[in-house]
Amino acid sequence: MYSTHLTVFAEIEGIGSASGLFMAGDLLYIIGDNSAYLNAYDIKTHQLNKIQVLFDQAISQLENIPKPLKPDFEMLCQHNNKLYILGSGSTLKRNLMIEFDLTTKKVVRKDLTKTYILLKSIAKIDNQNFNLEGAIFTGTEWLLFNRGNGADSKNGIFKIEGANLENAARASFNSFKLPNIDHMESSFTDAVLIENEIFFIATAEDTKSTYADGEILGSFIGSIDLQTSKLTFSNKITGKHKFEGITLLQQNQHSTTFLLCEDRDTEELKTIIYKLEIHF
């Protein structure tokens, strides 16, 4: 039996449309889906450091990139000393990946268009139903989570063999049925791997579009066994928040604690980080 407890962890000025998180020591890295910056927030000193990751002249200084131009950075994951920031692929302007080296601070830009075309072909997903919102990199394979909030409800997980995501050659797609609210199925919004268990968050949103936002009906936390790809559990978190980022804060024998971020779909540069405790 699982129970969950949600509280506010931090309120941060200067970040809008938060969509991805990663915790490293005392630093909480945060991305927004419409910003040219990666944010590093010190949870002890409450200091916020902005790291520029986009250098295109038209958008490089913007905190709120206009929707038709935004890179839609929905995914932030980590392996060894690198962070990976990925666009959702929901439009042609959203196929970018940024590698950020935590040691050297070097920024590398990569184009995922070729791989995203391959994934759509493998899963028979058209442009209107392709919307990646979660990523896990193990060092030998990638797991990318398609948010099934399009008309075809294509919830599922892509598994891509090899480390080179820019030039992927082999991939598979596993469809998933997630919990629903008021007959509206929830859809993946992020995921994180802990040992052999994938913890994911999902939101039920009253929309049939990967581009246009709808009324938020509720969010879930759940887990999937990495080896069997079977759903282990799911619990409703809330009926009003659209959580889009998850990272591990701490874990012990009886509980696992995550940090979550919320995309409020506004231009206000303020982000609330939540703490979610799961008790076993």
- Structural class, by secondary structure, is mainly beta
Distance between the termini: 6 Å
Rg over CA atoms: 17 Å
| Number of E-state strands | 22
Contiguous runs where pLDDT drops below 50 for at least 5 residues: none
Order of strands across the main sheet: 1-22-21-20
What is the number of helical segments per DSSP (H or I, 4+ residues)? 1
Q: Strand portion, in percent? A: over 45%
Largest sheet: 4 strands, antiparallel
Envelope shape: globular
DSSP helix fraction: under 10%
Average pLDDT taken over every residue: 91
Order of helices and strands: EEEEEEEEEHEEEEEEEEEEEEE
Give the structure's gist in a few sentences.
With 280 residues, the protein is mainly β. The chain has one helix at 113-123; strands spanning 3-13, 18-24, 27-32, 37-42, 48-52, 73-79, 82-87, 96-101, 107-111, 132-137, 141-146, 156-161, 171-175, 180-181, 184-185, 187-194, 197-206, 215-225, 231-238, 243-251, 255-262, 270-279.
Blueprint (SSEs and pairs):
Blueprint: E1 3-13, E2 18-24, E3 27-32, E4 37-42, E5 48-52, E6 73-79, E7 82-87, E8 96-101, E9 107-111, H1 113-123, E10 132-137, E11 141-146, E12 156-161, E13 171-175, E14 180-181, E15 184-185, E16 187-194, E17 197-206, E18 215-225, E19 231-238, E20 243-251, E21 255-262, E22 270-279
Antiparallel strand pairs: 1-22, 2-3, 3-4, 4-5, 6-7, 7-8, 8-9, 10-11, 11-12, 12-13, 14-15, 16-17, 17-18, 18-19, 20-21, 21-22
Kindly describe this structure.
With 280 residues, this protein is mostly beta strands. Helix content is 4%, strand content 54%. It has one helix and 22 strands. It has one helix spanning 113-123, and strands at residues 3-13, 18-24, 27-32, 37-42, 48-52, 73-79, 82-87, 96-101, 107-111, 132-137, 141-146, 156-161, 171-175, 180-181, 184-185, 187-194, 197-206, 215-225, 231-238, 243-251, 255-262, 270-279. The longest helix has 11 residues, at 113-123. The N and C termini lie close together (6 Å).
